[in-house]
UniProtKB/TrEMBL annotation:
It comes from Pseudothermotoga thermarum DSM 5069. Residues 11-79 form the HTH gntR-type domain. Pfam families: GntR. Keywords: DNA-binding, Transcription, Transcription regulation. PANTHER family: GNTR-FAMILY TRANSCRIPTIONAL REGULATOR, HTH-TYPE TRANSCRIPTIONAL REPRESSOR YTRA. SUPFAM superfamilies: Winged helix' DNA-binding domain (SSF46785). Gene3D superfamilies: Winged helix-like DNA-binding domain superfamily/Winged helix DNA-binding domain. This is Transcriptional regulator, GntR family. Coiled coil: none annotated. The keyword DNA repair does not apply. GO terms for molecular function: DNA binding; DNA-binding transcription factor activity.
Length: 122
């Protein structure tokens, strides 16, 4: 299996798929021109509906992360690492701004960041 999703998470499955693919790109496992699994194949591997994977791929295309290749599937778009990281940081800033507006203390956010980075060390 390519990766897994957490069905008990509050994060929708299609968003988890998007984030997992972005993470694979950001660490260099997926590179420009690499094919991602077909919608049907990934849906079967993850045990999710085809429409869920299709939505994730569609949104990744709109974000410029994936590119459809007619009759062949989807490939990682021509996106250099700096541009990709900049897009991810912009998205992160947007979420942090939403948290700030919601009154979430910055120390809580810092704890979440430490928790996420700490998972890799386990």
């Amino acid at each position: 299996m390519w990766f897994s999703v957490d069905f008990s998470s509050h994060v929708p499955v299609y968003k988890q798929i998007k984030e997992k693919i972005k993470a694979l790109i950001s660490v260099g496992i997926l590179k420009k021109g690499d094919f991602v699994p077909s919608i049907r194949s990934l849906a079967e591997d993850l045990g999710v509906n085809l429409n869920t994977v299709a939505r994730a791929y569609r949104e990744l295309v709109l974000e410029g992360v994936l590119q459809p290749v007619r009759g062949e599937g989807y490939v990682v778009a021509e996106l250099d690492r700096e541009t990709f990281v900049a897009k991810m940081l912009d998205e992160f800033k947007r979420v942090v701004d939403e948290c700030k507006k919601a009154g979430i203390d910055q120390n809580v956010l810092l704890d979440v960041i430490k928790e996420v980075f700490g998972r890799d060390e386990k």
